[in-house]
Amino acid sequence: MDKALTKNIDETRGPLDYQGYVAAGGYASVAKAMEMAPRDMMALIKEAGLGGRGGAGFNTGLKWSFIPEPDGGPRYLVVNADEMEPGTFKDRLLMEQDPHLLIEGVIASAWALQATTAYIFLRGEYTDAEELLLTAIDEAYAHGMLGTSVNGSDYRLELYLHTSAGRYICGEETALINALEGQRATPRAKPPFPQISGLWGRPTLVNNVETICNIPSIVLNGVDWFKQQGLGEEAGSKMFGISGRVNNPGCWELPLGTTFRTLLEDYAGGMREGYSLKAFLPGGGSTDFLMPEHLDVPMSYSEVGKLGSRLGTALVMVLDDKTCPIGCIHNLIKFFSHESCGWCTPCRDGLPWVEHMLLEIEQGRGKREYLDILKEMTGYMGPGKTFCALAPGAMAPLQSGLKHFMAEFEQHIDEQCCPYKHDHQLQRSA
Amino acid sequence: MSEMIATTKKQSRQLSAEEIREIEHEKTHYPYTQAVGLEALKIVQKHQGWVSDESLLAVAEYLDIPVADLEGVATFFNMIFRRPVGKNVICLCDSVACWMLGCDDLKAQITSRLGIEYGETTEDGEFTLLPVPCLGACDKAPVLMVGRETHRHVDPENLDQLLNELQRENTKSKKTM
Amino acid sequence: MADGMSEKVSITIDNQAIEVDPDKNLLEEVLSAGLDLPYFCWHPSMDSVGSCRQCAMTEYADEEDQHGRLIMACMSSPRDGARYSLQAAADFRAEIIEGMMISHPHDCAVCEEGGECHLQDMTVMSGHTYRRYDGTKVTHRNQNLGPFIGHEMNRCITCYRCVRFYRDYAGGTDLGAQASHHHVYFGRYDDGPLESEFSGNLAEVCPTGVFTDKVFSKHYSRKWDLQTSPSICAGCSIGCNINPGERYGTLRRVVNRYNDEVNGYFICDRGRFGTGYVNDDAVRIRQSMTRSSQDADPVLVSNADALQQLQDMSGAIGIGSPRASMEANFALREKVGKANFYAGLSQQEFAILQQILSIYQDTPAHIASLKDVEASDAVLILGEDLTNTAARMALAVRQSVRHRSFEKAAEQKIPLWHDAAVRKLAMDERSPLYILSPHATRLDDVSETTHICNAGQAARIAAAVASRFDKEVLAPEKLDKAEQALVKRITASFKGARQPLIIAGSNSMSLPLVQSAANLAQALYQKNELTQLALVGSEANGLGLMLLMEDSQQDLQQAFATGTQSAIVVENDLYRRAPTAEVDHFIAGLEQLAVIDNIKTRTGEQAHLVCASATFAESSGTFVNYEGRAQHYYATFKPVDSILPATRWLAPETSLATLTQACSQTLANCAGMADLTPGQDYHYAGLLVPRQQFRYSGRTAMRANKNVHEPKQEQDPDGIMSYSMEGVSPLKEARVFNTPWAPGWNSNQSVFKFQDEVGGHLKQSSIGVRLLDKRNSAEEGGYIALDSSEKNTAFPLYHLFGSEELSAQSQAIQARATSAYVAMNPADADRLGFNAGGGVTVQGNGVVPLLLRDSIATGSVGISVGLPGLNVHDVLPDVSLEPAPQWQAPPQWQPDNIIVSDRLHKLHEQEGD
């Protein structure tokens, strides 16, 4: 059977319009979903075992089930399309190449949640996706898939596109809700969870683009089919990708549990000539480095988790042997430090401190005591210490980097220069 | 006796009919007008290039939300410009994949050619250079945006070409003016 | 906050067992237990948001758990039987403060907050002593925030308290958080004065020196060098508890002093910044003087001569004052005899205050304290512009509308201390607040309806509501359809309320409005015994003065009518109380006029004898606030010898305590005054209560430029406090709550050490005595027949900054004040031929500017009160105005935002059913 996410994608052709999409079997899940009672559909998604594709992997149906029964007031479904995790480029592909799939997923999901309004919270820089989604939404309205009478029923659903203006923190669901309300995008404390008090204090579900794009095929093909799409315990296929110095960087839909070796060698065509694999971040900038000995790890939430990292977004960044790992970590921390919302102390004040020390080390002014402070900082900003997951995520590459690249850290400090400087210059002149 | 506060009170600017039309359209999407704040700032920026104090006041007045609130939002988001920017805003991705693949060299190239650092605008008001976090095209790194256009697989040659084209367009538009 | 108390639960903290309230958060309970746990973003009045991460503790899952997990105490409910540790999280807390401090300038030596800085205290407490960060600090540009508040953003540790107070708590709209990450900035969009009437609290809410008291900064002293005393604000009838501080004979600043039933943690900007007159030689009378005739130049006289001349004034009548203490008024009454004692109040204000006193004695409703106001869940304000006449009550009303959010949170099992979540869940759903006012008000942003109407119509609407609760009240006529719908809504809201509250007062200058408020409270009481009533006055001791009048009807007009040739006026400017011509006539007829006052007034300028009296900061006494709460204030410092307290001019040989006791014994309803102070012979182990902190510096040296000998310690003949640093430990036995301080807690945050629990009652000290609380269930009087003679052609307009006599003489307040004006609805102006932008000639007062405002009741004209250029008594009740179209506004006249409420002139009135 077809792939759940990419069956319509042909980058040389571009996205299907409404007619083309329907001709390819699109929007069939809407009618099928609406034959189900909303709670039954939630149960179906829960049973399918669809893990949240934003990075956390939490069971989507279970997350949905915490929404209270309708009370006649508004309820919201919000699609998190604020893709900004360094090294991640899957949602962009899905939205630019098959916008109607996302809309179909929104409608089916909204039915299950009995949402009255849905928003797609799109990253402002994704201008192509913005235009394509606006067109697709208009088409869906024009064909009665959205609006007062969804697919001819008496279910009413409005779908709006909200384009943001660039803040990584908006990927955090409660910060996203604040941003959507027109406020500063600082996160909210949980509980209460958005299912209870979300957008404007009303029941709200926030799901990632890829998560929502999985819904139509689960509705159409059922739980067993979906479970078979994964190779191991975990159900479904997943968008995987690789960036860095590989021969064929890109993004592919593959079964959960595909090994990293398959991804790197069969899909990405292996490392570029002259470069070898030094380490890799399995799923975005906020995951721990894995090493070449982990080449055969099945890329699933649980298996990557067992190695002390996270599958995250499953978009792998490859660190080669000619790139300075301290420079790489500094680049990541600089990103997180800048993207901190400024709400809680460890993240707001700790990250710039870490950024400062890493820069000093990288530029040959590092001090020995920095290493102790850096280690301390990974605890200071670890899970449970901060208001949201931004700083703990930022600490993932640092803490694993301190473990795997201690020799490089010490060499930087002892020699008061970056040992990769020569390589970098060679690359430049090449 | 009374302490004079050294400010000239700024006045809001009249929003254009087009700006108002677009803001009104956005208003239909949300049950509370505060939610339109960011969208309205983006609309103003689309038309004016940036958000001046006068524009900020105008949006706050139009939506009847406190200007302090709106400034809090405007200064929070990366892509709202509270200072004038050039006609072409070059947003160069400096996140990890692009960094590995040489975005620093591209930045040096732009700086030496246009004479601007990050956050600066050329004297002729044509170009502003800004860093931007991961643009989500890491498989095609390095990446940059000019205005709403994303450019992938940027290298020294095609960057030069791109700047040539932009400068040509700039001179062209100047001549026709 | 929460209704009712939950069963206490037991927890252990570092093996110490304590009983805690599960409805409170753990931080509060840890502090209430007397333990030290550092915090920043949490505030007892503003609850928790969990941003600073400073109050981290360790929670253990069970007895076996060795590691536990880190929790934020302010964001955690205590779990019955759970085990916690403060110790185990100490390292994390030290790291937190180290993080906060990476960009802090460490400028304590030149920072106004130094020595009472919560950040300093918490830094020491957390054990952060060495700064490891060696990078560049972030710096900011500061803003000019107006005459009240200084701004030094580099000191900011980003706790968000300022915006949470200013916006969430006080409803201000012009201060916000800007930018993000390590660059977060708190300020206005642009330079300019902070608009909120409560901006001064930022100086106390800010845990460090970002927001500071600018007036204090200009003449600064360290907290430990200030001589302080427990005092009561003289700025209005609320009676906020304050703590003034003095150094070198000048009053340096005023800060809030906690009283859970009155002002809690906050005061208004009039109270904080309105005491500059105390130091101002241009305003003060510092030495007594005589004049041979009313227009002769004054001659300075000694105290002894002045006292003798006062002594010689036999047969004089006495004119008291609502801004003078109970004791000063009483001493005057004793001196001249009750029959010759006149309240220095206009006929109208006298009648209204007398009515209020009589209502308080008769009403079955509870007289609401500010704490009761906050606890009320349906409020009707009749005619009072609270923000400008009793500002602290407006702040309390603003909290009352949050009850709906607490109900909603409780339904969702969200703890009520979870501030952000509670506010978000409710969005703009609020408990009902109805305002009937002749103009827009600063509370309109949280009111269900603000109905613009004159006082008479407001009284009728209140009567209509009352008639729906008790048929004995006759439903009035003259209500239009919209008003009938409004009556329905108010009725429904009151029916659904747990604790309804009606607010009115004397400032509306409408007798029927106060009467109607009382009737409504009484009718409502038939259905709900928790019904509350609050009737505010205008000055610090207006109600007290009425208690002194007892059954006497002697207002100022009666005094004028005596034809007396000799009068003694205590702390009162008659020109603020009666029409100019009448006062002129009265004074012209006097052979002898003695004025005892602390400031120069028009009355004093014509007196034959002027005696220099002490201000609230230099003398002690008792004020009775709007609710009948008698509160004692203690002199902060001793003035120069030529200044005496008014009581000492009038009763030179009598101690203050004796006068207080005499009041309590002589006056009906004043028995409670006997309990206000611990008694004149109070001491503990031979020690008095010190006015100076034990770190007070320079005692032997501070006057060395004048005399190398250390002077004898000043004695306070009136009290139980010493002008000294020795005395009873403030934390232990002192029966008087002066400046809060506790070991390790140098800032005002130390106040919790003086409370029985966080935000609770003071363990020591008096919070005042409510004189009018009924001892037995009162017999209910009947309903009051509304005075129907009132015309309502004009109404008064008040300004927090400018309308009150004393504060208006302070430079900081003047920087925010304006001159007199008249305001009317543009429709009326059109109809009557007044041009926009021109002026109006007001009978006997020259030309003043005319303001046109949509949000003003038609058919009435608004007259500014107390502002220079217009005596409101010349105008009310019969207004005669002429257009002055040629009049040119002076350049300093900037009518924008003159009626502060203007900014909210968009009324969210939902007429219809």
From TrEMBL, chain A:
NDH-1 shuttles electrons from NADH, via FMN and iron-sulfur (Fe-S) centers, to quinones in the respiratory chain. The keyword GTP-binding does not apply. Belongs to the complex I 51 kDa subunit family. It comes from Pseudohongiella nitratireducens. This is NADH-quinone oxidoreductase subunit F. Keywords: 4Fe-4S, Flavoprotein, FMN, Iron, Iron-sulfur, Metal-binding, NAD, Quinone, Translocase. It is an enzyme of class 7 (translocase). It catalyses: a quinone + NADH + 5 H(+)(in) = a quinol + NAD(+) + 4 H(+)(out). Its EC number is 7.1.1.-. PANTHER family: NADH-QUINONE OXIDOREDUCTASE SUBUNIT F. Coiled coil: none annotated. Residues 326-371 form the NADH-ubiquinone oxidoreductase 51kDa subunit iron-sulphur binding domain. NCBIfam families: nuoF_fam (TIGR01959), PRK13596.1 (NF010120). The keyword Translocase applies. Pfam families: Complex1_51K, NADH_4Fe-4S, SLBB. One of its GO terms (molecular function) is quinone binding. SMART domains: NADH_4Fe-4S. InterPro entries: NADH-UbQ_OxRdtase_51kDa_CS, NADH-UbQ_OxRdtase_suF, Nuo51_FMN-bd, Nuo51_FMN-bd_sf, Nuop51_4Fe4S-bd, Nuop51_4Fe4S-bd_sf, Soluble_ligand-bd.
From TrEMBL, chain C:
It catalyses: a quinone + NADH + 5 H(+)(in) = a quinol + NAD(+) + 4 H(+)(out). The keyword Ribonucleoprotein does not apply. Residues 7-90 form the 2Fe-2S ferredoxin-type domain. GO terms for biological process: ATP synthesis coupled electron transport. Its cofactor is [4Fe-4S] cluster. Keywords: 2Fe-2S, 4Fe-4S, Iron, Iron-sulfur, Metal-binding, Quinone, Ubiquinone. The keyword Metal-binding applies. This is NADH-quinone oxidoreductase subunit G.
